[in-house]
Amino acid sequence: QSVLTQPPSVSGAPGQRVTISCTGSSSNIGAGYDVHWYQQLPGTAPKLLIYVNRNRPSGVPDRFSGSKSGTSASLAITGLQAEDEADYYCQSYDGTLGGWVFGGGTKLTVL
Amino acid sequence: EVQLVESGGGLVKPGGSLRLSCAASGFTFSNAWMTWVRQAPGKGLEWVGRIKSKIDGGRTDYAAPVKGRFTISRDDSKNTLFLQMNILKTEDTAVYYCTRVPGGATQADNWGQGTLVTVSS
After folding, report:
1. What is the pLDDT of residues A77-111, one digit of tens each?
2. CB-CB: which of A46, A48, A51 is closest to B45?
3. Do B64 and A102 touch (CB under 8 A)?
């Protein structure tokens, strides 16, 4: 069981908008720790997609956006493209565990 | 360009030991905090542990499943990160990724390609 909870899968047609939720608790997201998102394309290493809740590293399209509220965070992807098909993971810090925690991952399928 | 290249993975029997290395280039390694993250076959990401830069104290922290068995260290003169894994269990089977953490941050901004560790009799 992952400390952060994500839906196992989401799907959408090309051009559509999808969101992926990440639910934590008062010892991680709710404690004010930042949330980060990673994209893992099939057979590759994860790549930082969103950092500190809503910031995009250089090179990440603005179709990807992040938000955080209370004990949850969300990743939104607009204008879905076939190349977005991947696993997405949220990550934060847990003050009780004293280390990083990840969500279980969400598989995005572009129909 | 930041590059992280892991090596040292392989097949090991339960109870055995293995040391992973991560060769870093393209940035000032001595200033960087570094982490190890693993991914069991077909599963999600799991944080293994982190080492701070020596200038920030060099402290190490570990996830509960590996604490007392795994040790993270660094050789700043060789720009290399290590993960010493002892008393290996079958559940330690995973791809192990070396990652860079921007100073004081809580995210990994660069990842290696990973090295596979298989613990099996």
Report:
1. 999 999 999 999 999 999 999 999 999 999 999 99
2. A46
3. no
* Closest chain B residue to the Cα of A53, Cα to Cα: B107
Measured CA to CA, the distance from residue A30 to residue A32 in angstroms comes to: 5
Contacts of A104 in chain B (CB under 8 A): 44
Q: A52: how many CB neighbours lie within 10 A of its CB?
A: 13
Cα separation, A56 vs A63, in Å, equals 10
Q: What single-letter DSSP state applies at residue B44?
A: -
- Residue-wise pLDDT for A6-30, tens only, equals 999 999 999 999 999 999 999 999 9
Within 13 A of A55's CA, how many CA atoms are on the CB side?
8
Give the gap in angstroms from C-alpha A11 to the nearest C-alpha of chain B.
19
Q: Which residues of B touch A55 (CB under 8 A)?
A: none
**Collapsing DSSP states into helix, strand and coil, what is residue B19?**
strand
Taking CB atoms and an 8 Å cutoff, what residues of chain B touch A106? none
Calpha distance B6→A64 (Å, rounded): 29
Residue A68 · residue A53 · CB < 8 Å: yes
State the Cα torsion A77-B40-B71-A100 to the nearest 10°.
30
Structure tokens at A77: 């992807």
Which of A45, A48, A98 has its CB closest to that of B97? Answer: A45
